[in-house]
Amino acid sequence: MLSRWLVGIAIIVVIASGVEATDIEFGGQIRPRTEFRDPVGNGYDVFTSMRARLNITANLEQDVNVFIQLQDVRLWGEESDTFTDYNADNFDFHQAYMDIKDMGDTALSLRIGRQAIGLGGQRIIGAVEWAQQGRTFDGVIATVKPQWGTIQGVGVRLSDTTAKDISGNAYLAALYATASGTSTSADFYGIYHHVSPEGSNRSDNTRLWTLGARIYGEKANWIYRAEGSFQTGERRGPNGSAFMLGGRLGTTLGSGSLTLWYDYLSGDGNFKDSKWKSFDTLFATNHKYYGFADLFLNIPVHTRNRGLQDFAIKASVPLDEEEQIRLAADGHVFFLAQKGDLESGHLADEIDLTLSYQYSENVTFVAGYTFAIARDAIKALGRLNEDMHWAYVMSNVSF
Q: Is 105 a member of any domain?
């Protein structure tokens, strides 16, 4: 059987042969990462995952571009005998879209197809590039660039019962506007998430609105960000409302940096009523915000709908004159937003250490260590029963 890898490469060759060589750009990535995690169940785990990507950009006439990205994500050793493996089980088209710029000499541009989407700081919709598989969406982005900034309209199909083994319909729509200033910029957004289950679950519809604003910028040696979001509507049936507030203030110290950070995601302290009050981060890139141990990747599920508070301090400093080697240290203290009937709302304390080495323009090495102290609340919720250690070594080659 011809593997899907060969099919994908064949498609790229066909596309490349149809346009002039000067209009073709190739790229790719190899990113293996070895991780140690303790605890995992009653023990620990050591494994190596790897992402391999191959992509092509074809620049066609009339400002039309085509981008295709092949991806394979696997664990080392998951195929015990590659000699007898005739299938590319982990292969996929990670992205495949067309760009149409300045349609009809207007300010409108379209991106149509499977694509990675990261809006703003990726607090609600993100590409999750830390995960080897990443996240992509099937849909359309329409972009208009007035003099004062950018407006994006997003339409995404999340699930469709026309496809095999899909039990419900779901889609995502968003309007995201950025007003760009000299030192300060502001984002304003509205996001609508709709899920319609089939059969007996039809009453469990989700019609969720998320409205928000984000102000960020730099002035002198200071970097700042403030963001707020409000959610309302139906979520798996019941109505409710929730909110998120976040702020960041940082400064440069020579070639280093120091940042103070606080996030508040509302929670529900009373489960007797039918109203939900916990903020849902939807399709966010939560790894970059709530600690590298990934204790709170799925919010509100990982805090049992009780919300989250994150107090953090982050520092970064170069270790050599060329600034090729850099050490970063992040400290987090996590609390529930609503402890309800729990005796304590203190979830965990976490420290993240990251050492990066920019070996060359295309090659980077990164090592990290995380230690998380399990406090009473996270033990009561069953999320973590003992202190956690996590370490990794990763190499990344991109071209």
A: no
Dihedral angle computed from the Cα positions of residues 33, 37, 41 and 44, in that order, rounded to the nearest 10 degrees: 100
* pTM for this predicted structure: 0.91
Do 68 and 217 lie in one domain? The reply is no
CATH number, domain containing residue 321: 2.40.160.100
Looking at the domain assignment, is residue 293 inside a domain? yes
Looking at the structure of the chain, the number of domains it has is 2
Q: How many CB atoms lie within 10 A of CB 218?
A: 14
Distance CA 51, CA 31 (A): 5
The residue-averaged pLDDT of 136-141 equals: 98
Is position 25 within any domain?
yes
Is 359 a member of any domain?
yes
Domain hosting residue 165, numbered range:
116-398
Distance CA 246, CA 248 (A): 7
Residues 6+ away with beta carbon under 8 Å from 211: 189, 190, 191, 229, 230, 231
Average pLDDT, whole number, for the chain? 93
CA proximity to 133, closest of 101, 103, 92:
92
For residue 39, cis peptide bond before it (omega within 30 degrees of 0): yes
Q: How far apart are CA 351 and CA 290, in angstroms?
A: 11
- Count of residues making up the chain: 399
Do 162 and 252 lie in one domain? The reply is yes
Q: How far is CA 162 from CA 155, 167, 197, 200, in A?
A: 18, 9, 13, 18
Q: Could you please report the per-residue DSSP string of 184-199?
A: EEEEEEEEEEEEEE-G
Q: What percent of the chain has pLDDT over 70?
A: 93
Whether residue 274 sits in one domain with residue 132: yes
pLDDT in tens, 147-199: 999 999 999 999 999 998 898 999 999 999 999 999 999 999 999 999 998 76
**CA–CA dist 203, 242 (Å, integer):** 21
Q: Scanning the structure block, which residue is given the tokens 């960020």?
A: 216
